[in-house]
Design goal:
single chain, mainly beta, 2 domains, 4-stranded antiparallel sheet, elongated
């Protein structure tokens, strides 16, 4: 943005200082003839110099503005993507009516569930009350960096003086109908004194499962004799005509012995149809 243009702006981003750096991303203004006054909006990035953390903000002359926290915006974009919404409105907005055609929206556009662009969209009025042509500025890739890797939503317990815990597998899936994540972690729990162990599955949204080695070996022998590839154990959710969700803890069998454990999860898209299946497999422990 040229210095000449910046000098003519009705509102500007704050000046950078020793603690924060400010970068102007976009500016738009529009004249409302009924009020005989200007609206002006500036979008900018505010970065904390010490931590490197940032937020995107919009300041306004004439209205309230908005703050766009990256983590919150990414979550909302994922929800919009699941619903096939091209954008959503964030922060201050003014919705037109029959008696007042003004329209002000801060739009976050998403692509494949990730932030793609920020748009400031403004419609003001002519002297006769009719709508002026819309003014808009669109800022592509206003959140350019990759989303940070988040911690698992479910974890095995921490080992202590009595038991040792070893993580075996983890999987998570998103249900757009409920707008929430399901997460599952499988782990081996071993008693230090006796060396006896079992496999457990812990879930954030459902019951889990406990897999005793003796019981699993017996069921594996029975399953193998029946010519089946696997059996399910512990909690399960079977799909129906009205709900395609499917959750199964599967024990795969080879030669009548437990070979692998699979956590299989299929949840729903926003239209209630079946989403992409997610699964994780890991070898059945030998000791």
């Amino acid at each position: 943005m040229s210095s000449a243009l910046a000098q003519n702006q009705l509102i500007e981003a704050p000046a950078s200082d020793a603690y924060r750096a400010y970068e102007t991303l976009g500016y738009v203004e529009a004249y409302d003839a009924i009020l005989n006054g200007d609206y002006a909006f500036v979008a900018y990035k505010e970065t904390d110099r010490a931590s490197g953390n940032y937020t995107v903000k919009i300041s306004s002359k004439g209205t309230s503005g908005a703050t766009f926290d990256p983590a919150t915006i990414r979550t909302r974009c994922r929800e919009a993507g699941a619903k096939n919404e091209p954008y959503f409105i964030w922060g201050y907005s003014f919705t037109p009516s029959a008696g007042d055609l003004r329209q002000i929206e801060f739009r976050v556009h998403q692509k494949s569930g990730a932030p793609a662009a920020l748009e400031m969209f403004v419609v003001t009025r002519k002297a006769d009350g009719s709508a002026q042509p819309a003014k808009s500025v669109r800022m592509e890739n206003f959140m350019t960096e990759a989303a940070p890797v988040r911690a698992p939503l479910a974890e095995a317990p921490a080992s202590d003086a009595y038991r040792v815990y070893k993580t075996l597998g983890y999987v998570e899936a998103y249900d757009a109908v409920l707008n929430c994540d399901y997460a599952f972690v499988a782990y081996q729990e071993t008693e230090k004194d006796s060396n006896q162990w079992r496999v457990c599955v812990k879930s954030t949204q459902t019951a889990g499962g406990s897999f005793d080695p003796v019981a699993i070996r017996s069921k594996a022998r029975e399953t193998g004799a029946q010519g089946k590839a696997y059996f399910t154990w512990g909690y399960s959710f079977e799909p129906t005509a009205g709900d395609p969700r499917q959750i199964e803890f599967r024990i795969h069998v080879a030669d009548g012995l437990p070979k692998e454990v699979e956590i299989f999860v299929r949840l729903r898209k926003a239209d209630h149809s079946a989403g992409e299946s997610k699964s994780v497999k890991f070898a059945w422990p030998q000791s």
